[in-house]
Amino acid sequence: MRRLLLLALVGLGAQLVDGSLGMAYGVTSTTLLLAIGTNPAAASATVHLAEIGTTLVSGASHWRFGNVDWKVVAKIGIPGAVGAFAGATFLSSLSTETAAPLMSIILLALGLYILVRFTAVGLPKGNLGKPLRKRFLAPLGVVAGFVDSTGGGGWGPVGTPAILASGRLEPRKTIGSIDTSEFLVAVAASVGFIIGIGSEGVNYTWVAALLIGGIIAAPIAAWLVRHIPPRVLGSAVGGIIVLTNTRTLLRSDWIDASDGVRYACYAVIYVAWAAALGWSFQQYRKHRDEERQIIAEAEAAATAGGTSAAKAGTPTV
C-alpha cells in the first residue's frame, strides 16, 4: 500500500510538472520505477499505459484553457506515434542488463539538456507567430517518439525545447500542443510494448496508481501553465533527472563507483543545480515584463495573420 501511495504521488507530481512545463512525466516516473528494480521495458510500458489516461485528461484541460494548436498536434502527433511504436519494439528486444544502463544514459542526457536549455536560454525572440512547417514537425515527431519509448520518456524533453527554440509558437501553446499530441504517442508505445513483452510484464496496479495521480494533477497543471515560469521549473526538473540517473549509472555494473566518487559527484551536481535555480529565477525576474510583451505581440500577430488568411481563403500553415 505504501508503494502504491508513493506511485500515486509521483504520478501527481510528474503530471503537475509535465502539464505546466510540457515534459518530464515519463522521465520522472520511469526513473522511479527503475530505481525500485523494475525491468526497463516493463517500466516504460507501465508509464505509457498510464499516460494514455493522463494525456487524454491533460489534452482536454489544455484545450479548455486555450493552450492547444490543433494543426501542430496533427503534424507532430502522427509521426510521433510511428516513432514510439518502433522504439517500443526495439526496447522490448533488449536484455535487462543491457537496457537498464542504456536507459539511464538516455534519461541523463535528456536531463542535462533540460537543465542547460532552461537555465541558459530565455524565451526565443523574433519568430513568434510564424507557421511551423510539416517538414520540421514530422521528423521531430519520429525522433521524439522513438526516444520517448526507449528512454521511458522524452516526448516532451525533445519536442518542447525544439519547438520553443524555433521561436514560432508561444510557450503555453507549445506545452499544450505537445501534451495533447502525446496521447497518440502513448497509445502507439503501449501497443508496441504489449506486442513485444506481453501483458504479463506490466503491473496494472502500478499503472492505476500512476494514472490516478496524473488525472488529479492534469487540470491543475493546465491552469498553472499560465502562471509558473517555465525557465525556473525546467531547471528544477532537469536537476532532479540528472541527479537520479547519475546515481543509477554510478551504482551500475558498468561503472560501480566507490562511495567517495559517488558522493563527490552528488556534491558537484547539488552545487551546480542550486546555482542553476538561482540564475533561472534571477533571469526570470529580470526579463519578465519583456517576455510578456513578446508573447502579447506574437498572439496579436498570429490572430491578425489567421484572420487575413481566412479572408483570402488560404491556409496559415
Automatic annotation (TrEMBL):
InterPro entries: TM_pro_TauE-like, TSUP/Inactive_protease-like
Coiled-coil annotated residue ranges, if any: none
Top-level division of the source organism's lineage: Bacteria
Topology of this chain in the membrane: Multi-pass membrane protein
Keyword rRNA-binding tagged: no
Transmembrane segments: 72-94, 100-123, 181-198, 204-225, 232-249, 261-281
Compartments, record wording: Cell membrane; Membrane
Principal location listed in the UniProt entry: membrane
Keywords: Cell membrane, Membrane, Transmembrane, Transmembrane helix
Matches recorded under Pfam families: TauE
Family assignment from sequence similarity: Belongs to the 4-toluene sulfonate uptake permease (TSUP) (TC 2.A.102) family.
Name the UniProt record assigns to this protein: Probable membrane transporter protein
Lineage of source species: Bacteria, Bacillati, Actinomycetota, Actinomycetes, Micromonosporales
